[in-house]
What does this fold into?
Amino acid sequence: MNNPTFGLPATQQAVDPKSGGWISFWYQWAVRISQLSAERPIAAITPDVSPFTYTASTIGNFLVSGGTVSGVVLSRSGVNVTCQEDQFIPMAANDEVMVTYSVAPTITFIPSARA
It folds into this structure.
């Protein structure tokens, strides 16, 4: 029987019998569940020097507004994406956003709420 949500057999093992390590899907699932286990407050981020890099410790949304910003770049697994200010930037744990500015903007990180 397949799980309709994930498309995996309901009997899918969490540990690879050959390596003894977590199977990637289940590892990612466990990380996501652990990140949602506690409510986290909205965080005001104070940038220091430009360019400023923020690394997400959990899933959530990053928002840059105000100031004089010349660049916002999201990095995930070595892939960079140019983003716009004044828009929410969805982030996974360990994603980085680099903000380049001449006048410091207001930066906010909003962790995802528990479902």
